[in-house]
């Protein structure tokens, strides 16, 4: 749904790195380099960012449309 | 006992501790993880929540947010003098959040949380809590308190807290032909070639995997062993407390436990005789 606050396995804070990560990867940077620069050393934390899909964006589209129709 | 500080940053620390045994190291590790208190949101009162995340999901996310902890000014609620279920100023901090999306989709961050104590704030202002579509609104009050990992993992002050034996690498110069096979196979880049011999460079990184021994001609010129009384201790915090403070707190807790045991044994002994 939305990026988890902490890594599921070790408990490191990952939530605050998500937007930075997405921005840099979309700009064409190598995810490996980006993860290293964000201090994501262990593979448990790296998979948190690498494998995440922000489904909340898809769901919010429905609410946005209903809002438009109401007016 | 001898302690050597190898590396220290504001979130992590690496120590080499000599002259101790496994039970001691394990006691220290377990207390650091499970018994050193830290601050986290425990109760949340929702006044309004029309976001796509349910109350309990949002409350769980708030709970996991690491808060900068002040161990000197706050008490554990069960040890606080107020004895109140709701807590007092010495054992509870209130954080409030009021947000609404007006025109476009808005992300609500931990930076939007308003804390009644300016010292107890989230370690990062950039953690997304929820995204709101236009018209959606949240209004809540969150109560943070000290707690330990024995109750919930959100109160764990460390993410990495582990020790390993201090590796010892010996290379027999008579048997070694400096073929560099061991240098190539080592995933941690522990070995390096120095002119016409192989030398261990950062022994502390060695994981004792023995790959270099297996790849070496027989009889192997390289021997990877470990010391029985020396340990490498790695600590990485959630930024809630400085790493050295966590070690000191853990030692204080261990001390208190032993003092308590000693005290009880002495009084019981007097009763027996």
Report on the structure:
The complex is a heterodimer of chains A (71) and B (273). With 71 residues, chain A is an all-alpha fold. Chain A has a single domain, classed as Arc Repressor Mutant, subunit A (Orthogonal Bundle), CATH 1.10.10.60. Chain A contains 4 helices and no strands. Chain A has helices at residues 18-26, 31-37, 43-50, 56-70. The longest helix of chain A has 15 residues, at 56-70. Chain B is α+β, with helices and mostly antiparallel strands. Chain B has 2 domains: 2-34 and 159-235, Gyrase A, domain 2 (2-Layer Sandwich), CATH 3.30.1360; 38-155, Beta Complex (RNA Polymerase Alpha Subunit, Chain A, domain 2). Chain B has a 4-stranded antiparallel sheet with strand order 1-2-12-9. In chain B, strand 10 (191-194) and strand 11 (197-200) form a beta hairpin. In chain B, helix 1 packs across helix 5. The longest helix of chain B has 30 residues, at 243-272. Chain B is flat and about 75 Å long. Chain B starts with a strand and ends with a helix. The mean pLDDT of chain B is 92. The chains are: A mainly alpha (71), B alpha+beta (273).
Find the CATH superfamily of chain A.
Answer: Homeodomain-like
CATH top level of the largest domain in chain B is Mainly Beta
Label the overall shape of chain A: elongated
Helix tally of chain A equals 4
Helix and strand composition category of chain B: alpha+beta
Order of helices and strands of chain B: EEHEHEEEEEEHEEHEH
Q: Helix- and strand-based class of chain A? A: mainly alpha
Radius of gyration of chain B: 26 Å
Count the domains of chain A.
Answer: 1
Largest sheet of chain B: 4 strands, antiparallel
Could you say what the CATH topology of the largest domain in chain B is called? Answer: RNA Polymerase Alpha Subunit, Chain A, domain 2
Biggest interface: A-B, 23 and 29 residues
- How far is the N terminus from the C terminus of chain B? 37 Å
Give the helix proportion of chain A (percent range).
40-55%
| Shape type of chain B | flat
CATH class of chain A: Mainly Alpha
Mean pLDDT of chain A: 93
> Based on the structure given, which CATH architecture of chain A is correct?
Orthogonal Bundle
What is the oligomer described by this structure?
heterodimer
Order of helices and strands of chain A: HHHH
């Amino acid at each position: 749904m939305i990026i988890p606050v902490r890594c599921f396995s070790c408990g490191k804070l990952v939530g605050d790195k998500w937007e930075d990560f997405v921005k840099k990867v979309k700009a064409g940077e190598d995810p490996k380099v980006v993860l290293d620069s964000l201090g994501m050393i262990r593979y448990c934390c790296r998979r948190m960012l690498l494998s995440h899909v922000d489904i909340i964006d898809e769901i919010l589209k429905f609410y946005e449309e209903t809002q438009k129709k109401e007016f | 006992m001898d302690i050597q500080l190898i590396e220290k940053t504001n979130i992590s620390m690496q120590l080499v501790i000599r002259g101790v045994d496994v039970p001691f190291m394990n006691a220290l590790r377990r207390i650091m993880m499970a018994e050193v208190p830290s601050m986290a949101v425990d109760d949340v009162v929702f006044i309004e929540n029309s976001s796509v995340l349910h109350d309990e999901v949002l409350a769980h996310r708030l709970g996991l947010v690491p808060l900068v902890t002040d161990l000197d000014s706050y008490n554990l609620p069960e040890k606080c003098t107020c004895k109140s279920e709701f807590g007092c100023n010495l054992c509870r901090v209130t954080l409030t959040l009021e947000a609404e999306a007006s025109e476009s989709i808005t992300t609500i961050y931990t930076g939007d949380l308003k804390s009644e104590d300016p010292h107890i704030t989230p370690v990062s202002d950039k953690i997304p809590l929820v995204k709101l579509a236009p018209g959606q609104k949240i209004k809540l009050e969150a109560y943070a308190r000290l707690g330990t990992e024995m109750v919930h993992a959100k109160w764990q002050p460390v993410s990495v807290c582990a020790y390993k034996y201090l590796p010892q690498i010996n290379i027999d110069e008579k048997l070694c032909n400096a073929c560099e096979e061991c240098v190539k196979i080592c995933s941690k880049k522990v070995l390096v070639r120095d002119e016409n011999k192989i030398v261990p460079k950062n022994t502390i990184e060695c994981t004792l995997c023995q790959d270099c021994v297996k790849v070496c001609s027989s009889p192997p010129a390289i021997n990877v062993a470990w010391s029985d009384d020396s340990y490498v201790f790695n600590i990485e915090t959630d930024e809630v407390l400085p790493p050295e403070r966590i070690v000191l707190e853990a030692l204080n807790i261990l001390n208190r436990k032993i003092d308590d045991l000693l005290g009880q044994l002495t009084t019981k002994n007097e009763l027996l005789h």
